[in-house]
């Protein structure tokens, strides 16, 4: 993609900074499948501790982390309760059904759900017709709902109920870093109620790849086998781990800038009569906005914005997403707002 473009398609498009590249270059590496990659070992310990968990496992992608979690915490035929339009159901190309053999039951709205909705959705075990509910998955922040932070008080109630009913819990925390900054809570507090947690290094933290699963030692041991089975066990992963460690150390606090930029962009767009956006959903670095039925459609806005040097994603015919990140400055956000506003014309 041309360097002059302001790329708001995703926070995955960031490229390693010079300092991150230097950390990668300097990494001492070894064969991770023998447990001999020192930087990967350090990352696993450090991030597991940051999340308040016993152990951690580096995996190549967030999608693989989610798929491994399903395989560790469920059996084929089980039902998993998830939020509407969750990543596992919408962005993993059917992997949940293909890899874990589970069905996903979407509940709630706006990226989250309540304990009452969970109580109503849990299917009892031991009946001959129902698929047993064996896992509840929460996505925090929630991508397709505009990066909202799942209310933590509800997380605590939901996970306590799950524990009482013998149902496992999983946090898809690809952007839990953003949730921590936005809510003023530590990552360990956000992760505490869950059996297993996934975090991503390749989104807001700016690493070129890699995610991590964290939880009790026996769950991480099971995840290690599943990683191998899915073909995700690698060798000198320390180059990725070094980038991740750098991102964790240097790019977490600055996520507040991305959140400011998203709000600035959202407020500028909200002034346009063809844009429908609930500003209360703009809590982190994602801006999802809808287009008025009488105006131009999403594909047109994306094409026209591209002609003006701004890259966006269309979610559907009338929904557009813009994501702020490390490689977009405040000045570029203002230019992007002007370009998108121009793209909305007539
Ligand atoms: C990006 C994302 C993932 C998957 O991460 P990849 O590394 O792109 O596979 C999982 N969950 C959520 C919520 C995400 O936004």
Low-confidence stretches: none
Proportion of residues in helical segments: 40-55%
Query: Which superfamily, in CATH terms, is the homologous superfamily of the largest domain?
Result: Type I PLP-dependent aspartate aminotransferase-like (Major domain)
In round numbers, the mean pLDDT is 97
Amino-to-carboxy terminus distance: 28 Å
Proportion of beta-strand residues: 15-25%
Overview of this structure, please?
This protein is of the alpha/beta class and 346 residues long. The protein folds into 2 domains: 233 residues, 3-Layer(aba) Sandwich (Aspartate Aminotransferase, domain 2), CATH 3.40.640; 92 residues, Aspartate Aminotransferase, domain 1, CATH 3.90.1150. 41% of the residues lie in helices and 17% in strands. A 7-stranded mixed β-sheet has the order 2-8-7-6-5-3-4, sandwiched between helices. A 4-stranded antiparallel β-sheet has the order 9-10-13-12. Helix 12 packs parallel to helix 14. The protein is globular.
Short description:
It contains 14 helices and 13 strands.
Topology diagram in text:
Blueprint: E1 6-7, H1 18-26, H2 38-50, E2 55-59, H3 62-73, E3 79-83, H4 87-90, H5 95-100, E4 103-107, H6 115-121, E5 133-139, H7 152-164, E6 168-173, H8 176-183, H9 187-191, E7 196-200, E8 211-215, H10 217-229, H11 238-250, H12 255-270, E9 275-276, E10 286-291, H13 298-307, E11 310-311, E12 313-316, E13 319-323, H14 330-343
Parallel strand pairs: 1-11, 3-4, 3-5, 5-6, 6-7
Antiparallel strand pairs: 2-8, 7-8, 9-10, 10-13, 12-13
Helix pairs in contact: 1-11, 2-11, 3-10, 12-14, 13-14
Pyridoxal-5'-phosphate (PLP) binds near residues 61, 87 and 211.
